[in-house]
Amino acid sequence: MLAVGCAHPGGLPQGSAASGSPIALKSAFKDAFLVGVALNEEQFSGRAVSSVALVKAQFNTISPENVLKWEIVHPRPATYNFAPGDAYVEFGAQNGMFVIGHTLVWHSQTPPWVFQDSAGHPLAREALLARMHDHISTVVGHYKGRVKGWDVVNEALNEDGTMRPSAWQKIIGDDFIEKAFQYAHEADPAAELYYNDYSLENPAKRDGAVRLINRLKAAGVQIKAIGSQEHNKMDWPSVPLMDSMFTALAGTGVHVNVTELDVDILPRVTQNGGADVATRGQAQAGSNPYAAGLPDSAQKALARRYAEMFGVYLKHQDVIDRITFWGVTDGDSWLNGWPVRGRTSYPLLFDRQLKPKPAFDMVVALSGKR
Ligand code: GLA
User: Fold this and answer.
1) How far is the CA of 329 from the centre of ligand 1 (A)?
2) What is the mean predicted confidence (pLDDT) over 275-279?
Protein backbone atom coordinates (compact mmCIF):
# COMPACT_ATOMS: atom_id res chain seq x y z
CA MET A 1 0.00 0.00 0.00
CA LEU A 2 1.44 3.33 -1.03
CA ALA A 3 0.43 6.49 0.84
CA VAL A 4 -0.47 9.38 -1.45
CA GLY A 5 2.27 12.03 -1.52
CA CYS A 6 1.91 15.76 -2.07
CA ALA A 7 0.32 16.58 -5.43
CA HIS A 8 1.99 20.00 -5.67
CA PRO A 9 -1.24 21.52 -6.92
CA GLY A 10 0.23 24.97 -7.39
CA GLY A 11 3.52 24.18 -9.09
CA LEU A 12 6.05 21.58 -10.06
CA PRO A 13 8.25 19.70 -7.61
CA GLN A 14 11.91 20.68 -7.32
CA GLY A 15 14.98 18.42 -7.54
CA SER A 16 13.18 16.05 -9.89
CA ALA A 17 14.12 13.28 -12.32
CA ALA A 18 14.09 15.87 -15.09
CA SER A 19 17.00 17.47 -13.25
CA GLY A 20 18.86 14.21 -12.77
CA SER A 21 17.30 12.14 -9.96
CA PRO A 22 17.43 8.43 -10.87
CA ILE A 23 14.00 7.38 -9.56
CA ALA A 24 12.07 5.05 -11.89
CA LEU A 25 8.31 4.75 -12.26
CA LYS A 26 8.46 1.04 -11.41
CA SER A 27 10.29 1.80 -8.14
CA ALA A 28 8.15 4.78 -7.21
CA PHE A 29 4.98 2.70 -7.46
CA LYS A 30 6.32 -0.73 -6.45
CA ASP A 31 4.10 -0.90 -3.39
CA ALA A 32 1.01 0.10 -5.39
CA PHE A 33 1.02 -1.43 -8.90
CA LEU A 34 3.22 -2.44 -11.83
CA VAL A 35 3.98 0.31 -14.35
CA GLY A 36 4.05 -0.69 -17.99
CA VAL A 37 4.41 0.47 -21.56
CA ALA A 38 3.29 -0.63 -25.02
CA LEU A 39 6.21 -1.48 -27.30
CA ASN A 40 6.66 -1.37 -31.06
CA GLU A 41 8.92 -3.67 -33.06
CA GLU A 42 11.87 -1.24 -33.16
CA GLN A 43 11.86 -1.32 -29.38
CA PHE A 44 11.47 -5.00 -28.49
CA SER A 45 13.85 -6.03 -31.28
CA GLY A 46 16.46 -3.84 -29.56
CA ARG A 47 17.06 -1.61 -32.62
CA ALA A 48 15.82 1.53 -30.86
CA VAL A 49 18.77 1.41 -28.48
CA SER A 50 18.09 4.46 -26.33
CA SER A 51 14.35 3.70 -26.04
CA VAL A 52 15.25 0.19 -24.90
CA ALA A 53 17.44 1.55 -22.12
CA LEU A 54 14.60 3.79 -20.98
CA VAL A 55 12.08 0.93 -21.07
CA LYS A 56 14.37 -1.34 -19.03
CA ALA A 57 15.03 1.39 -16.47
CA GLN A 58 11.45 2.56 -15.99
CA PHE A 59 8.93 -0.24 -16.58
CA ASN A 60 8.19 -3.74 -15.27
CA THR A 61 5.35 -4.83 -17.56
CA ILE A 62 4.94 -4.58 -21.34
CA SER A 63 2.16 -4.77 -23.92
CA PRO A 64 2.59 -5.26 -27.67
CA GLU A 65 1.30 -2.33 -29.73
CA ASN A 66 0.42 -4.49 -32.75
CA VAL A 67 2.26 -7.80 -33.17
CA LEU A 68 -0.26 -10.02 -31.38
CA LYS A 69 -3.29 -8.56 -33.14
CA TRP A 70 -5.01 -11.03 -35.48
CA GLU A 71 -3.92 -9.37 -38.76
CA ILE A 72 -0.24 -9.72 -37.78
CA VAL A 73 -0.11 -13.04 -35.92
CA HIS A 74 -2.62 -14.88 -38.15
CA PRO A 75 -2.70 -13.07 -41.50
CA ARG A 76 -4.12 -15.93 -43.61
CA PRO A 77 -6.27 -18.96 -42.75
CA ALA A 78 -3.46 -21.48 -42.39
CA THR A 79 -0.60 -19.05 -41.66
CA TYR A 80 0.55 -18.05 -38.21
CA ASN A 81 3.31 -15.46 -38.06
CA PHE A 82 4.91 -15.86 -34.64
CA ALA A 83 8.34 -14.32 -35.25
CA PRO A 84 7.49 -10.74 -34.15
CA GLY A 85 5.47 -11.94 -31.16
CA ASP A 86 8.27 -14.30 -30.16
CA ALA A 87 10.76 -11.40 -30.14
CA TYR A 88 8.35 -9.34 -28.03
CA VAL A 89 7.83 -12.14 -25.48
CA GLU A 90 11.56 -12.86 -25.36
CA PHE A 91 12.30 -9.19 -24.61
CA GLY A 92 9.94 -9.34 -21.64
CA ALA A 93 11.38 -12.63 -20.39
CA GLN A 94 14.98 -11.38 -20.67
CA ASN A 95 14.10 -8.32 -18.61
CA GLY A 96 11.94 -10.02 -16.00
CA MET A 97 8.81 -8.15 -17.06
CA PHE A 98 5.15 -9.15 -16.73
CA VAL A 99 4.22 -9.85 -20.35
CA ILE A 100 0.75 -8.97 -21.64
CA GLY A 101 -0.91 -10.40 -24.76
CA HIS A 102 -3.08 -7.95 -26.73
CA THR A 103 -5.57 -8.92 -28.17
CA LEU A 104 -7.35 -12.16 -29.14
CA VAL A 105 -10.85 -11.10 -30.28
CA TRP A 106 -11.51 -7.60 -31.64
CA HIS A 107 -13.55 -6.15 -34.53
CA SER A 108 -10.59 -4.07 -35.72
CA GLN A 109 -7.22 -5.12 -37.20
CA THR A 110 -8.82 -8.47 -37.99
CA PRO A 111 -8.75 -9.55 -41.67
CA PRO A 112 -12.11 -9.87 -43.51
CA TRP A 113 -11.44 -13.56 -44.34
CA VAL A 114 -11.92 -14.43 -40.66
CA PHE A 115 -15.66 -13.96 -41.07
CA GLN A 116 -16.01 -15.61 -44.51
CA ASP A 117 -15.80 -19.04 -46.08
CA SER A 118 -13.47 -19.78 -49.00
CA ALA A 119 -16.12 -18.54 -51.47
CA GLY A 120 -16.39 -15.22 -49.62
CA HIS A 121 -19.79 -15.96 -48.03
CA PRO A 122 -20.38 -15.06 -44.37
CA LEU A 123 -19.63 -17.87 -41.94
CA ALA A 124 -22.35 -19.34 -39.73
CA ARG A 125 -22.06 -19.42 -35.92
CA GLU A 126 -20.46 -22.87 -35.52
CA ALA A 127 -17.88 -22.26 -38.25
CA LEU A 128 -16.85 -18.90 -36.78
CA LEU A 129 -16.65 -20.43 -33.29
CA ALA A 130 -14.39 -23.15 -34.70
CA ARG A 131 -12.17 -20.50 -36.30
CA MET A 132 -12.05 -18.50 -33.08
CA HIS A 133 -11.16 -21.67 -31.17
CA ASP A 134 -8.34 -22.48 -33.59
CA HIS A 135 -6.94 -18.94 -33.27
CA ILE A 136 -7.13 -18.75 -29.48
CA SER A 137 -5.86 -22.24 -28.75
CA THR A 138 -2.98 -21.82 -31.22
CA VAL A 139 -1.88 -18.33 -30.09
CA VAL A 140 -2.44 -18.75 -26.34
CA GLY A 141 -1.01 -22.28 -26.54
CA HIS A 142 2.11 -21.00 -28.32
CA TYR A 143 2.80 -18.51 -25.50
CA LYS A 144 1.58 -20.71 -22.64
CA GLY A 145 3.37 -19.83 -19.40
CA ARG A 146 5.20 -16.87 -21.01
CA VAL A 147 2.37 -14.42 -21.72
CA LYS A 148 1.03 -13.90 -18.20
CA GLY A 149 -2.19 -12.06 -19.05
CA TRP A 150 -4.37 -11.80 -22.16
CA ASP A 151 -6.79 -9.15 -23.37
CA VAL A 152 -9.25 -11.81 -24.51
CA VAL A 153 -11.90 -9.48 -25.91
CA ASN A 154 -11.34 -5.84 -26.86
CA GLU A 155 -14.06 -3.17 -27.23
CA ALA A 156 -17.29 -5.21 -27.38
CA LEU A 157 -19.50 -2.44 -25.96
CA ASN A 158 -21.23 0.57 -27.51
CA GLU A 159 -21.17 3.94 -25.74
CA ASP A 160 -24.69 3.31 -24.42
CA GLY A 161 -23.60 0.06 -22.78
CA THR A 162 -25.27 -2.28 -25.27
CA MET A 163 -23.32 -4.86 -27.24
CA ARG A 164 -21.45 -3.52 -30.27
CA PRO A 165 -22.83 -5.12 -33.47
CA SER A 166 -19.43 -6.41 -34.63
CA ALA A 167 -19.11 -9.35 -37.01
CA TRP A 168 -18.34 -11.48 -33.93
CA GLN A 169 -21.58 -10.46 -32.23
CA LYS A 170 -23.73 -10.61 -35.35
CA ILE A 171 -22.60 -14.07 -36.43
CA ILE A 172 -22.09 -15.81 -33.08
CA GLY A 173 -24.32 -13.81 -30.75
CA ASP A 174 -23.52 -12.10 -27.44
CA ASP A 175 -21.95 -15.27 -26.04
CA PHE A 176 -18.91 -14.93 -28.34
CA ILE A 177 -17.36 -13.34 -25.26
CA GLU A 178 -18.04 -16.30 -22.94
CA LYS A 179 -16.67 -18.65 -25.63
CA ALA A 180 -13.50 -16.62 -26.16
CA PHE A 181 -12.73 -16.64 -22.42
CA GLN A 182 -13.48 -20.36 -22.18
CA TYR A 183 -11.11 -21.17 -25.07
CA ALA A 184 -8.36 -18.96 -23.62
CA HIS A 185 -8.68 -20.55 -20.18
CA GLU A 186 -8.48 -24.04 -21.69
CA ALA A 187 -5.34 -23.09 -23.63
CA ASP A 188 -3.50 -21.68 -20.58
CA PRO A 189 -5.31 -22.19 -17.26
CA ALA A 190 -2.67 -20.13 -15.40
CA ALA A 191 -2.94 -17.00 -17.58
CA GLU A 192 -4.86 -13.99 -16.29
CA LEU A 193 -7.75 -13.11 -18.61
CA TYR A 194 -9.10 -9.61 -19.19
CA TYR A 195 -11.90 -7.71 -20.91
CA ASN A 196 -10.53 -4.39 -22.31
CA ASP A 197 -12.38 -1.25 -23.47
CA TYR A 198 -12.27 2.55 -23.68
CA SER A 199 -14.50 5.31 -22.22
CA LEU A 200 -15.60 3.06 -19.37
CA GLU A 201 -15.96 6.23 -17.28
CA ASN A 202 -19.01 7.11 -19.37
CA PRO A 203 -21.80 6.05 -16.94
CA ALA A 204 -23.91 4.22 -19.54
CA LYS A 205 -20.92 2.27 -20.86
CA ARG A 206 -19.65 1.64 -17.33
CA ASP A 207 -23.03 0.16 -16.37
CA GLY A 208 -22.97 -1.99 -19.51
CA ALA A 209 -19.54 -3.26 -18.47
CA VAL A 210 -20.85 -4.09 -15.00
CA ARG A 211 -23.71 -6.07 -16.57
CA LEU A 212 -21.26 -7.83 -18.87
CA ILE A 213 -18.91 -8.83 -16.04
CA ASN A 214 -21.80 -10.04 -13.90
CA ARG A 215 -23.03 -12.07 -16.85
CA LEU A 216 -19.59 -13.62 -17.39
CA LYS A 217 -19.20 -14.45 -13.72
CA ALA A 218 -22.67 -16.03 -13.61
CA ALA A 219 -21.58 -18.21 -16.54
CA GLY A 220 -18.52 -19.36 -14.56
CA VAL A 221 -16.03 -17.49 -16.76
CA GLN A 222 -12.55 -16.94 -15.29
CA ILE A 223 -11.90 -13.21 -15.58
CA LYS A 224 -9.21 -11.51 -13.52
CA ALA A 225 -9.62 -7.88 -14.49
CA ILE A 226 -11.22 -5.27 -16.67
CA GLY A 227 -8.79 -3.17 -18.64
CA SER A 228 -9.73 0.50 -18.71
CA GLN A 229 -7.81 1.85 -21.70
CA GLU A 230 -7.71 5.49 -20.50
CA HIS A 231 -7.02 7.32 -23.74
CA ASN A 232 -7.84 10.46 -21.80
CA LYS A 233 -8.32 14.12 -22.68
CA MET A 234 -7.35 17.14 -20.58
CA ASP A 235 -10.96 17.65 -19.52
CA TRP A 236 -12.37 14.13 -19.76
CA PRO A 237 -12.97 11.98 -17.82
CA SER A 238 -13.41 14.06 -14.67
CA VAL A 239 -12.02 12.84 -11.36
CA PRO A 240 -15.53 11.94 -10.06
CA LEU A 241 -16.24 9.91 -13.23
CA MET A 242 -12.92 8.09 -12.92
CA ASP A 243 -13.54 7.46 -9.26
CA SER A 244 -17.01 6.04 -9.77
CA MET A 245 -15.79 3.84 -12.62
CA PHE A 246 -13.20 2.13 -10.41
CA THR A 247 -15.74 1.69 -7.63
CA ALA A 248 -18.46 0.28 -9.89
CA LEU A 249 -16.25 -2.09 -11.88
CA ALA A 250 -14.40 -3.36 -8.81
CA GLY A 251 -17.80 -3.91 -7.20
CA THR A 252 -18.24 -6.90 -9.50
CA GLY A 253 -15.28 -8.56 -7.77
CA VAL A 254 -12.70 -8.18 -10.56
CA HIS A 255 -9.63 -5.97 -10.61
CA VAL A 256 -9.43 -2.88 -12.84
CA ASN A 257 -6.19 -2.22 -14.73
CA VAL A 258 -5.22 0.89 -16.67
CA THR A 259 -4.07 -0.55 -19.97
CA GLU A 260 -3.46 2.13 -22.63
CA LEU A 261 -2.83 5.38 -20.79
CA ASP A 262 -2.19 8.68 -22.57
CA VAL A 263 -3.56 12.24 -22.38
CA ASP A 264 -4.46 14.01 -25.62
CA ILE A 265 -3.79 17.73 -25.17
CA LEU A 266 -4.56 18.69 -28.78
CA PRO A 267 -7.84 20.37 -29.82
CA ARG A 268 -10.77 18.08 -30.52
CA VAL A 269 -11.37 17.62 -34.25
CA THR A 270 -14.32 15.20 -34.06
CA GLN A 271 -17.69 15.35 -32.35
CA ASN A 272 -17.40 11.97 -30.68
CA GLY A 273 -15.09 11.29 -27.77
CA GLY A 274 -13.76 7.83 -27.09
CA ALA A 275 -10.85 6.06 -28.72
CA ASP A 276 -12.38 4.25 -31.67
CA VAL A 277 -9.45 3.66 -34.04
CA ALA A 278 -11.86 3.98 -36.99
CA THR A 279 -12.66 7.62 -36.13
CA ARG A 280 -11.15 10.13 -38.57
CA GLY A 281 -11.14 13.91 -38.18
CA GLN A 282 -10.42 16.85 -40.46
CA ALA A 283 -7.36 19.04 -39.89
CA GLN A 284 -8.49 22.63 -39.35
CA ALA A 285 -6.79 25.93 -38.68
CA GLY A 286 -5.43 25.72 -35.16
CA SER A 287 -5.75 21.96 -34.81
CA ASN A 288 -1.97 21.45 -34.51
CA PRO A 289 -0.99 24.28 -32.15
CA TYR A 290 2.22 22.84 -30.68
CA ALA A 291 4.11 21.81 -33.83
CA ALA A 292 7.05 23.98 -32.76
CA GLY A 293 7.06 22.83 -29.13
CA LEU A 294 4.96 22.72 -25.99
CA PRO A 295 4.69 26.03 -24.10
CA ASP A 296 5.43 25.99 -20.39
CA SER A 297 1.79 26.68 -19.48
CA ALA A 298 0.60 23.61 -21.44
CA GLN A 299 3.42 21.51 -19.98
CA LYS A 300 2.30 22.46 -16.47
CA ALA A 301 -1.37 21.84 -17.25
CA LEU A 302 -0.48 18.34 -18.50
CA ALA A 303 1.52 17.71 -15.32
CA ARG A 304 -1.45 18.75 -13.17
CA ARG A 305 -3.77 16.52 -15.21
CA TYR A 306 -1.47 13.51 -14.72
CA ALA A 307 -1.29 14.26 -11.01
CA GLU A 308 -5.07 14.27 -10.59
CA MET A 309 -5.35 11.01 -12.54
CA PHE A 310 -2.64 9.31 -10.48
CA GLY A 311 -4.41 10.55 -7.36
CA VAL A 312 -7.39 8.43 -8.44
CA TYR A 313 -5.19 5.44 -9.29
CA LEU A 314 -3.49 5.56 -5.90
CA LYS A 315 -6.84 5.82 -4.17
CA HIS A 316 -7.93 2.60 -5.89
CA GLN A 317 -4.55 0.82 -5.75
CA ASP A 318 -6.06 -2.19 -3.93
CA VAL A 319 -7.91 -3.16 -7.15
CA ILE A 320 -5.31 -1.94 -9.69
CA ASP A 321 -2.57 -4.40 -10.67
CA ARG A 322 -0.91 -2.24 -13.33
CA ILE A 323 -0.87 1.09 -15.10
CA THR A 324 0.36 0.77 -18.70
CA PHE A 325 1.24 3.75 -20.94
CA TRP A 326 0.43 3.49 -24.67
CA GLY A 327 3.89 4.34 -26.01
CA VAL A 328 7.33 5.14 -24.60
CA THR A 329 7.83 8.76 -25.70
CA ASP A 330 5.66 11.48 -27.22
CA GLY A 331 7.25 10.72 -30.58
CA ASP A 332 6.05 7.10 -30.46
CA SER A 333 2.41 7.91 -29.74
CA TRP A 334 -0.47 6.93 -32.03
CA LEU A 335 -1.93 10.38 -31.19
CA ASN A 336 0.48 12.00 -33.69
CA GLY A 337 -1.62 10.29 -36.36
CA TRP A 338 -5.12 9.92 -34.87
CA PRO A 339 -7.77 11.09 -35.47
CA VAL A 340 -5.88 13.44 -37.84
CA ARG A 341 -2.55 12.55 -39.42
CA GLY A 342 0.51 14.74 -39.06
CA ARG A 343 -0.09 16.50 -35.76
CA THR A 344 2.49 16.90 -32.98
CA SER A 345 1.18 15.36 -29.78
CA TYR A 346 2.51 15.35 -26.21
CA PRO A 347 0.48 12.67 -24.41
CA LEU A 348 3.11 10.76 -22.38
CA LEU A 349 5.65 11.25 -19.58
CA PHE A 350 8.79 11.23 -21.78
CA ASP A 351 9.48 13.77 -24.53
CA ARG A 352 10.87 13.20 -28.03
CA GLN A 353 14.43 13.36 -26.66
CA LEU A 354 13.50 10.60 -24.15
CA LYS A 355 13.72 13.06 -21.26
CA PRO A 356 11.21 12.93 -18.40
CA LYS A 357 8.71 15.79 -18.60
CA PRO A 358 7.31 17.85 -15.72
CA ALA A 359 4.36 15.42 -15.74
CA PHE A 360 6.82 12.62 -14.87
CA ASP A 361 8.12 14.61 -11.91
CA MET A 362 4.62 15.37 -10.73
CA VAL A 363 3.55 11.71 -10.90
CA VAL A 364 6.67 10.48 -9.11
CA ALA A 365 6.27 13.17 -6.44
CA LEU A 366 2.74 11.92 -5.85
CA SER A 367 4.10 8.46 -5.03
CA GLY A 368 5.96 10.02 -2.11
CA LYS A 369 9.09 8.11 -3.23
CA ARG A 370 10.94 10.91 -4.96
C1 GLA B 1 -7.15 0.72 -29.15
C2 GLA B 1 -6.51 -0.65 -29.17
C3 GLA B 1 -5.02 -0.56 -29.16
C4 GLA B 1 -4.51 0.51 -30.10
C5 GLA B 1 -5.13 1.81 -29.72
C6 GLA B 1 -4.63 2.93 -30.57
O7 GLA B 1 -7.23 1.26 -27.92
O8 GLA B 1 -6.91 -1.46 -28.09
O9 GLA B 1 -4.50 -1.79 -29.57
O10 GLA B 1 -4.79 0.18 -31.42
O11 GLA B 1 -6.51 1.68 -29.93
O12 GLA B 1 -3.33 2.79 -30.99
Assistant:
1) 16
2) 86
Q: Which residues are catalytic?
A: 155, 260
Tell me the H-state helices in 251-368: 296-315, 358-367
Q: How does pLDDT run across 288-329, given as a tens digit for each residue?
A: 999 999 999 999 999 999 999 999 999 999 999 999 999 999
- Angle at the Cα of 106 (from 275 to 78), degrees rounded to 5? 145
Q: Of all residues in the chain, what percent carry a pLDDT higher than 90?
A: 88
pTM: 0.95
C-alpha span between 102 and 192 (Å, rounded): 12
Residue 151 near ligand 1, beta carbon < 6 Å: no
Residue length of the chain: 370
- Rounded CA-CA distance 16/357 in Å is 10
Q: Where are the alpha helices (DSSP H) in the chain?
A: 25-28, 41-44, 49-58, 70-73, 83-94, 125-142, 167-172, 176-187, 203-218, 239-250, 296-315, 358-367
DSSP state of 146: T
Three-state secondary structure call for residue 194: strand
Q: Is 63 in the pocket of ligand 1 (CB under 6 A)?
A: no
